[in-house]
């Protein structure tokens, strides 16, 4: 049997986003958080086939659009990437909105505004459009917070590190320069991947955060290594690690949200602050601390993230049962 998927390929500030516009599995009309569980249980081969090699690669991100279950949302989205079917993806949202508007997949109730149902909750988006093209997107992310500060962990080959655990749609280990890590200068992408893998493994034994409102969102699967910026107009620089070997080419939407929540939790940002966040390749997201928020017993923020994406092509992908690599592979 051959399955066909029509995809719109884009990138958000350098990070790939593959929007599945046709061929995605039919799912029951239910909250997208429940549809996510069904997708993971019964259809995860779609994610692996489209994100993993030979049709994808180590940093592939994607999304599938569905009708919204919530009446206050324009559409729902599942985020698929090499690290799994995520609760939320900021770069994925910016790329999905850009592709969906430019290609006519969605029609907003109000021009320039969208409400998106994600597994992590409702995400509001504003965008600027000129001549049929989406020039910029600002997502108003879900409530983000500092879950635990100053966690000490022994990392193989690095020694003891002090990290903060912060949530911005996914849980992140946030690392700043310290005695056993001097910063991003001089590190290759391979260095960052290797350190991140060791850190995540070490944290798994001592730290398992669970979201106060949804126990299905748990565990530290991402890391964000933070340093001073290269560009004088930026406030910080980062390398976001996810999956097995992926370094985000953008500054990371949920990563920037988690970073701002961490800085807010430590008294280094306030409501109204802006935070220009620089990626390893020099692209920038503009973060804003919009308001305070409560997440269970935690004090956090409502962040917004501004960025841009570009559509780079249309792609019809075949997944044929005759192909021994139909469902993709990863080299570890």
Topology diagram in text:
Layout: E1 2-12, E2 15-22, H1 32-42, H2 44-51, E3 61-66, E4 75-81, E5 84-86, H3 90-102, E6 113-118, E7 121-130, E8 133-140, E9 144-155, E10 159-167, E11 171-175, H4 189-204, E12 210-211, E13 214-218, E14 222-227, E15 236-242, E16 246-247, H5 253-265, E17 274-278, E18 284-295, E19 298-307, E20 309-320
Parallel strand pairs: 2-3, 4-6, 11-14, 15-17
Antiparallel strand pairs: 1-2, 1-20, 3-4, 4-5, 6-7, 7-8, 8-19, 9-10, 9-19, 10-11, 12-13, 14-15, 15-16, 17-18, 18-19
Catalytic activity: trans-4-hydroxy-L-proline = cis-4-hydroxy-D-proline
Pfam families: Pro_racemase (PF05544)
Organism: Rhizobium sophorae
Protein described:
By secondary structure, the protein is of the alpha+beta class. It folds into two domains: 2-125 and 310-320, Diaminopimelate Epimerase, Chain A, domain 1 (Roll); 144-296, Diaminopimelate Epimerase, Chain A, domain 1. Helices cover 18% and strands 44% of the residues. The chain has helices spanning 32-42, 44-51, 90-102, 189-204, 253-265; strands at residues 2-12, 15-22, 61-66, 75-81, 84-86, 113-118, 121-130, 133-140, 144-155, 159-167, 171-175, 210-211, 214-218, 222-227, 236-242, 246-247, 274-278, 284-295, 298-307, 309-320. It has an eight-stranded mixed beta barrel. A two-stranded antiparallel sheet has the order 12-13. The model has no long low-confidence stretch (mean pLDDT 96).
Give the gist of this structure.
Keywords: Isomerase. By secondary structure, the protein is an alpha+beta fold.
Which CATH class of the largest domain applies here?
Alpha Beta
The secondary-structure class comes to alpha+beta
Number of domains: 2
* CATH H-level superfamily title of the largest domain: Diaminopimelate Epimerase, Chain A, domain 1
CATH-derived architecture of the largest domain: Roll
Query: Termini, distance in Å?
Result: 29 Å
Percent strand equals 35-45%
The protein's oligomeric status is single chain
**CATH third-tier fold name of the largest domain:** Diaminopimelate Epimerase, Chain A, domain 1
* Beta strand count: 20
Radius of gyration, whole Å: 19 Å
């Amino acid at each position: 049997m051959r399955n066909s998927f029509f995809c719109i390929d884009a990138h958000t500030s350098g990070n790939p986003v593959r929007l599945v516009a046709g061929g995605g599995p039919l799912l029951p009309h239910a909250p997208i958080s429940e549809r996510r569980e069904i997708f993971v249980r019964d259809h995860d081969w779609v994610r692996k086939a489209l994100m993993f090699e030979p049709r994808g690669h180590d940093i592939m991100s994607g999304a599938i659009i569905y009708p919204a279950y919530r009446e206050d949302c324009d559409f729902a989205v599942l985020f698929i990437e090499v690290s799994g079917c995520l609760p939320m993806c900021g770069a994925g949202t910016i790329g999905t909105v850009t592709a969906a508007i430019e290609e006519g997949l969605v029609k907003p109730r109000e021009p320039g505004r969208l409400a998106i149902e994600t597994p992590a909750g409702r995400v509001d988006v504003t965008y600027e459009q000129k001549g049929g093209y989406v020039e910029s997107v600002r997502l108003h992310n879900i409530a983000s917070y500092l879950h635990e500060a100053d966690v000490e962990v022994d990392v193989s080959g690095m020694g003891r590190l002090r990290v903060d655990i912060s949530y911005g749609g996914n849980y992140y280990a946030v690392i700043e320069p310290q005695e056993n890590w001097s910063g991003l200068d001089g590190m290759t992408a391979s260095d960052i991947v290797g350190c991140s893998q060791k850190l995540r493994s070490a944290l798994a034994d001592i730290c398992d955060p669970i979201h106060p409102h949804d126990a299905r969102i748990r565990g530290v699967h991402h890391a964000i290594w933070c340093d001073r910026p290269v560009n004088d107009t930026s406030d910080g620089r980062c390398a976001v690690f996810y999956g097995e070997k992926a370094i985000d080419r953008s500054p990371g939407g949920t990563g920037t949200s988690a970073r701002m929540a961490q800085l807010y939790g430590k008294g280094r940002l306030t409501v109204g602050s802006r935070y220009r966040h620089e990626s390893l390749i020099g692209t920038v997201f503009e973060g804003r601390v919009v308001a305070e928020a409560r997440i269970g017993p935690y004090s956090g923020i409502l962040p917004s993230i501004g960025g841009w994406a570009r559509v780079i092509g249309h792609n019809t992908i075949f997944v044929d049962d005759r192909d021994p690599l139909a469902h993709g592979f990863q080299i570890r």
